[in-house]
């Protein structure tokens, strides 16, 4: 037994050199950073890309981060931006702070040669939750396949999106809101100036996100301020394309009125009063009224639908899609009954045109549960992704690659994910190649093959603007109304748009609401 101790010591030394120890410093515009080695990658955590948005900087455009002397350690994640709860069931609640404008960078340790493509990940969470350090979002596996991966923290909720007449007057532009989108743009500007120091190519930047992160991708493609900061876009289950006639609070005048009502709900009678309140207090009152993007600002002068319809979007290659059972992680389907389905949906979404619900038969309770799930899927995700793909095909020149995720992960009984199926969030384990974060789950060879192929598709797209590559099933570009779609499931196949008949019903209703056919303003 004593003869084994030297060998054990050598193995421990090798591991210490390979993981969890300091790496060579990297110099950025603000100073030198020292990350840590973690397996095949080096990670730089909590890199400041803007000044802390506190005090008088609350509800202002992000300012440059302060410079520092010496070498700054980048070995621990920063707190998430202010929020309550979690962005995903089963997630550990993150530590939070108003001082949260940091990003994380993963880069391969042994990369040599040409600069690598860059993926900038924008987390989801309904604009009110989420973290740049959530384990599923960590970029270690994607970086090991040949990319530099950046995850970004940005202001959320009222701190990220409040519009208010005093803020509009103070801005000098007559508008307010969208501070969270400004943060994302500031992070992309930081990437353009600094990512080459980490081995990344600032001319091959892909913005990517899921849920609200995908909605942010649609906003950034529509934003004139983000133009030129990225060359590809990936959107997973989210976009901002519904008629704003159905959501007038997203327009600036209504958003300012909501801001006044929100301030009153906190007992604040002025902007000075709001800035004096503790950050935790700002999450109370009518915070949900002011926790979404605002259309009509300098960041987002047009809605994504309007920008794409006019052909003013950033015309970049686009990979986008949604999941077959999105609603199963978002809605409790057990109490759904046929007799009360219409009333239940009206309580959730307000009065809707009858043709929408008529497209989802619900004569029996079993049919009603399926109808409720399918309606939520198409209303919140399916139509947006289809409309987005068609708009880009109609007014842009860059290619589109559409997918439908159908694989049901082996979510264990008794876990927060039981019964989810191919739900909202489910593709994240696969595209990030993070099955091993849950080693006790019954992952099959088919799961592992799909994770390897999906993560490779994503890397290929970041590299070239096309997900195709050696050893992968061919993925055709999307064109036209019933464009070719890649079905990512037990096997990978190609077909037409799923549930096209139901999506066309939404399309007809939305066109009537807008007063113009699809694609015309």
- CATH superfamily name of the largest domain? Alpha/Beta hydrolase fold, catalytic domain
Query: According to CATH, what is the topology of the largest domain?
Result: Rossmann fold
**Derived structural class:** alpha/beta
Overall domain count: 2
Number of strands: 15
CATH top-level class of the largest domain: Alpha Beta
What is the rounded distance between the termini? Answer: 79 Å
- Biggest beta sheet attributes: 12 strands, mixed
- Estimate percent helicity: 25-40%
Q: Could you tell me the radius of gyration in angstroms?
A: 23 Å
Low-confidence stretches: 1-19
Instruction: Tell me, briefly, the overall form.
Output: globular
SSE string: HEEEEEEEEHEHHHEHEHHHEHHHEHHEEH
Oligomer: single chain
Strand content: 5-15%
- Supply the CATH architecture of the largest domain: 3-Layer(aba) Sandwich
Average pLDDT for all residues: 93
Secondary structure: elements and pairs:
Layout: H1 4-18, E1 21-22, E2 26-28, E3 31-34, E4 36-38, E5 41-48, E6 71-73, E7 102-108, E8 116-122, H2 140-144, E9 148-152, H3 157-161, H4 165-171, H5 179-194, E10 200-210, H6 212-222, E11 232-236, H7 252-265, H8 271-276, H9 304-310, E12 318-323, H10 341-349, H11 354-358, H12 365-395, E13 400-405, H13 428-431, H14 445-464, E14 485-488, E15 492-495, H15 500-514
Parallel strand pairs: 3-6, 8-9, 8-10, 10-11, 11-12, 12-13, 13-14
Antiparallel strand pairs: 1-4, 2-3, 4-5, 5-7, 7-9, 14-15
Helix pairs in contact: 6-9, 9-12, 12-15
């Amino acid at each position: 037994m004593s003869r084994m101790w030297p060998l054990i010591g050598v193995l421990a030394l090798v591991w210490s050199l390979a993981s969890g120890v300091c790496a060579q410093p990297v110099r950025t515009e603000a100073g030198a950073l020292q990350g840590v080695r973690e397996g095949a990658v080096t990670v730089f955590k909590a890199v400041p890309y803007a000044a802390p948005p506190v005090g008088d900087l609350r509800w202002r455009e992000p300012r440059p981060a302060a410079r520092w002397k010496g070498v700054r350690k980048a070995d621990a994640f920063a707190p998430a931006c202010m929020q309550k709860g979690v962005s995903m069931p089963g997630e550990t609640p993150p530590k939070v702070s108003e001082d949260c404008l940091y990003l994380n960078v993963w880069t391969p340790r042994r990369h040599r040669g040409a600069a690598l493509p860059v993926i900038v990940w924008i987390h989801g969470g309904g604009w009110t939750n989420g973290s740049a350090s959530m384990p599923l979002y960590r970029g270690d596996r994607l970086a090991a396949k040949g990319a530099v991966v950046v995850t970004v923290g940005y202001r959320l909720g009222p701190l990220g999106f409040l519009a208010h007449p005093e803020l509009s007057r103070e801005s000098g532009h007559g508008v307010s809101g969208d501070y969270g989108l400004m943060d994302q743009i500031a992070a992309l500007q930081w990437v353009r100036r600094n990512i080459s120091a980490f081995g990344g190519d600032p001319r091959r930047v892909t913005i990517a996100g899921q849920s609200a992160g995908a909605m942010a991708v649609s906003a950034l493609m529509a934003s004139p301020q983000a133009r030129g900061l990225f060359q590809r876009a990936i959107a997973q289950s989210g976009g901002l394309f519904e008629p704003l006639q159905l959501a007038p609070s997203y327009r600036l005048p209504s958003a300012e009125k909501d801001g006044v009502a929100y301030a009153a709900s906190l007992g604040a009678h002025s902007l000075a009063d709001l800035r004096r309140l503790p950050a935790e207090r700002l999450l109370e009152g009518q915070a949900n009224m002011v926790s979404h993007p605002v259309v009509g600002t300098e960041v987002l002068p047009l809605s994504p639908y309007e920008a794409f319809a006019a052909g003013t979007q950033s015309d970049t290659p686009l990979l986008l899609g949604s999941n077959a059972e999105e609603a199963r992680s978002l809605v409790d389907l057990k109490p759904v009954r046929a007799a009360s389905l219409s009333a239940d949906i009206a309580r959730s979404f307000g009065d809707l045109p009858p043709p929408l619900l008529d497209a989802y038969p619900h004569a029996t309770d079993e049919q009603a549960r399926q109808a409720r799930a399918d309606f939520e899927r198409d209303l919140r995700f399916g139509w947006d992704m289809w409309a987005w793909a068609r708009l880009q095909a109609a007014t842009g020149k860059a290619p589109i690659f559409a997918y439908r995720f159908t694989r049901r992960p082996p979510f264990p009984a008794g876990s927060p994910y039981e019964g989810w199926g191919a739900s909202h969030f489910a593709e994240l384990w696969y595209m990030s190649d993070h099955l091993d974060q849950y080693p006790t789950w019954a992952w099959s060879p088919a799961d592992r093959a799909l994770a390897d192929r999906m993560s490779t598709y994503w890397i290929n797209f970041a590299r070239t603007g096309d997900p195709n590559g050696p050893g992968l099933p061919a993925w055709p570009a999307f064109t036209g109304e019933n464009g070719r779609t890649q079905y990512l499931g037990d096997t990978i196949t190609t077909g037409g748009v799923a549930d096209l008949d139901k999506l066309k019903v939404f399309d007809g209703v939305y066109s009537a609401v807008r007063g113009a056919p699809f694609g015309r303003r």
